[in-house]
Specification:
The complex is a heterodimer of chains A (233) and B (255).
Chain A: E1 5-7, E2 12-15, E3 20-25, E4 30-34, E5 39-46, E6 50-57, E7 62-70, E8 73-80, E9 86-95, E10 99-107, E11 113-122, E12 127-136, E13 143-153, E14 158-167, E15 172-181, H1 185-192, H2 198-211, H3 218-232
Parallel strand pairs in A: 1-3, 2-4, 3-5, 4-6, 5-7, 6-8, 7-9, 8-10, 9-11, 10-12, 11-13, 12-14, 13-15
Helix pairs in contact in A: 1-2, 2-3
Chain B: E1 2-13, E2 18-28, E3 32-36, H1 43-51, E4 56-65, E5 68-69, H2 75-80, E6 83-86, E7 93-97, H3 98-110, H4 116-129, E8 140-141, H5 147-161, E9 165-169, H6 177-193, E10 198-202, H7 207-211, E11 216-221, E12 224-229, H8 231-240
Parallel strand pairs in B: 3-10, 3-11, 6-9, 9-10
Antiparallel strand pairs in B: 1-2, 1-4, 4-5, 7-8, 11-12
The complex binds adenosine-5'-triphosphate (ATP) and magnesium ion (MG).
Chain lengths: 233, 255
């Protein structure tokens, strides 16, 4: 899958064509609106240290949002406005200084679904944080929410995860998991047992954690892999 | 020529349990040894300690590899010097493909970057020998692999990395009759092609030993070797169990 269409940064972007897009988000706030019955895939990158994105999803629209970032503070708001709207949100970040993600997911119609996967590998000594809020008000039936938040610490850095689900409707499926840990000792041992040096093991395991969930073209994969490689040096 | 010499090794787990108690073993170049013993006697611990796991503390004794102590070497350095352990339960790593993992490992072992073309050829051949499906190369390490596929994958790594001392910790567990035969034939062929390579087989069953004939069979109990003999000992154990073998006989046969 190639991200052929580079979206130009405008305060508001209206997507009504089924396709895949690449968007480089700068300091200014961006608002993305997905037209009814449209499915699209977007890869969001960053050109500044902070980003602020608001996403509106109309009826039966499907949005696949992926992001690979380094040391960014992001605020993302997702409004599932139309019935049957769904979002797949995959956010991967390499951290070496203080950074974090705050994502808010508002289910505002019935049969809406959100799947959120956030992963940070913290190479630095400071705090990396994930704050994920999702809400379902009364009357929005058959909503589906999953959240998976992971932070891996390589050095003495810290990690904080704040997952919040506000659900005011019985007819709803929700699950969440949150892990803050070091890389698994067994996996480290297995890799080193085959002669791979510690630094290269960190590289492989970081790649596993940050890119394992992503579905991007080779060109971006190479680019992200190089970013991970540089971080380890 | 000595390959591995373990001298009066005492090993303690992090939580203070003494697991290996005065364990000694000598393996010369090109020799095949087997260790059998009841569950929980310390066989897997021994293999992990040789590999350099930091779950355990060596409180006495030494491990010499090619005449030099390796106790202070990190795990990856031991591997680069040619020590290879097939784990009883290999872990899976999501998102790292078998081929990327092995190419990184091979480059580390050789100390130089391995070309993609050469690597692919090596992989193709080795996977063919093991009758592994080609798509396994591009799958995450051991992710969703069956028990048998994991073991085959370990032998694939052995064939690519070309170690000098191979330790098989229950290679035979999880392998069906046909897979066991394929895998053992690969190990045997590897030994033929690399006659200096030494092999230590940890097993509960004599079947694997009929494919790969050991010169020495040791019985391990409670953290040390209590009896050493030849293949006949393995057959006797299979027939009569560990309590049926006389632990006083046959000792030191191989010195
Ligand atoms: N890291 C550890 N911490 C504490 N105890 C341990 C540790 N590793 C092993 N042990 C204990 O040491 C003993 C030996 O374990 P080990 O796995 O070496 O046995 P084994 O001979 O390989 O057994 P099996 O035939 O069942 O594979 C067991 O009682 C086990 O519970
Ligand atoms: Mg064992």
């Amino acid at each position: 899958m190639m991200f052929m269409n580079k979206l130009l940064l405008k305060p508001q972007i209206y997507i009504e064509k089924e396709d895949s897009y690449e968007l480089v988000v700068g300091e200014d706030a961006v608002e993305i609106v997905l037209a009814p019955y449209t499915s699209c895939k977007l890869l969001a990158l960053a050109s500044s240290k902070s980003q602020n994105v608001t996403i509106h999803l109309s009826k039966e629209s499907r949005f696949e949002y992926q992001s690979f970032l380094q040391n960014i503070n992001s605020k993302i708001q997702i409004f599932l406005e139309g019935e049957g709207a769904s979002v797949d949100f995959v956010y991967s970040m390499l951290a070496s200084s203080k950074c974090g993600l705050k994502v808010e997911v508002y289910h505002q119609s019935s049969h809406t679904s959100s799947r959120i996967h956030n992963a940070i590998v913290n190479y630095g000594e400071e705090l990396a944080s994930l704050s994920v809020d999702a809400s379902v008000p009364k009357g929005c039936v058959s909503c589906h929410l999953t959240q998976d938040n992971r932070i891996t610490l390589l050095k003495n850095g810290k990690g904080k995860i704040l997952p919040n689900l506000w659900i005011d409707e019985f007819d709803c499926f929700a699950e969440h998991s949150a892990y803050i840990s070091k890389f698994s000792k067994e996996k480290m041992f297995y890799c080193r047992m085959r002669g791979i040096q510690e630094q290269d093991v960190y590289f492989l395991l970081t790649k596993s954690m940050l890119l394992g969930n992503m579905n991007v073209d080779d060109e971006h994969l190479t680019q992200f892999t190089e970013m991970i490689q540089k971080m380890g040096r | 020529m000595k390959m591995l010499e373990i001298k009066e090794l005492k090993v303690r787990s992090k939580d203070g349990k003494d697991i290996l108690k005065d364990f000694s073993l000598l393996i010369k170049k090109g020799e095949v040894h087997a260790i059998m013993g009841p569950n929980g006697t310390g066989k897997s611990t021994l293999s992990k300690v040789i590999m350099g796991s930091d779950d355990y503390e060596v409180i006495h004794g030494d491990i010499l590899y090619n005449g030099t102590s390796i106790l202070n070497l990190p795990v990856d350095e031991r591997a680069r010097q040619g020590i290879f352990l097939v784990n009883q339960n290999p872990v899976s790593i999501e998102g790292v493909t078998n081929s990327e993992f092995l190419k990184t490992a091979l480059s580390s072992v050789r100390g130089e970057n391995v070309g993609l073309y050469e690597f692919m050829k090596l992989m193709e051949n080795a996977m063919g020998d093991l009758k592994m499906r080609e798509d396994m190369m591009h799958r995450s390490i051991n992710q969703d692999f069956s028990g048998g596929e994991r073991k085959k994958n370990e032998i694939l790594q052995m064939k690519i990395l070309k170690p000098k001392l191979v330790i098989l910790d229950e290679l035979d567990s999880g392998l069906d009759v046909d897979s066991l035969k394929i895998v053992c034939e690969n190990v045997r062929q590897y030994l033929e092609e690399n006659p200096e390579t030494s092999l230590l087989i940890i097993t509960h069953y004599s079947r694997i030993l009929e494919y790969i004939k050991p010169q020495y069979v040791h019985v391990m109990k409670d953290g040390k070797i209590v009896q050493t003999s030849d293949m006949s000992l393995a057959l006797e154990i299979e027939k009569n169990g560990y309590d049926g073998v006389n632990s006083m006989s046959g000792n030191d046969v191989y010195e």
